[in-house]
Amino acid sequence: MSSALTITLYGTTACHLCEAAAALLQPFVGNGVRVNEVDITEDPALMERYQLRIPVLKREDTGDELDWPVSFEQLILWLSDVIGEEA
């Protein structure tokens, strides 16, 4: 694997679902995935776009977004081209 895939996790600091999404991503960190957490309350444009959808995961390589709720199995499928058989 040449470089890590960056996943942006859009959420807020007081969001228990956002914490759950971060925990769901944790097994992939270091296995071809890097996570960048973004607090949407710090940017009015992000707040407008995501406030009713958080947590939202975004693949920075393709721009694909995955809205909550997300199962571990869905996440594996969404990342399968990056993680291969490592998960």
What does this structure look like?
The protein has a single domain (5-83), classed as Glutaredoxin (3-Layer(aba) Sandwich). Helix 1 links the parallel strand 1 (5-11) and strand 2. The chain has helices at residues 16-25, 44-50, 72-83, and strands at residues 5-11, 33-39, 56-59, 65-67. The chain is globular. The protein has three helices and four strands. The chain has 87 residues and is α+β, with helices and mostly antiparallel strands. The model has no long low-confidence stretch (mean pLDDT 92).
CATH class: Alpha Beta
| CATH fold-type name | Glutaredoxin
CATH homologous superfamily annotation: Glutaredoxin
The fraction of residues assigned to DSSP E strands is: 15-25%
Tally of extended strands? Answer: 4
Largest sheet: 4 strands, mixed
What's this model, at a glance?
With 87 residues, this protein is of the alpha+beta class.
Distinctive features:
87 residues; 3 helices; Glutaredoxin; globular; single chain; 4-stranded mixed β-sheet; alpha+beta
Give a topology summary.
Layout: E1 5-11, H1 16-25, E2 33-39, H2 44-50, E3 56-59, E4 65-67, H3 72-83
Parallel strand pairs: 1-2
Antiparallel strand pairs: 1-3, 3-4
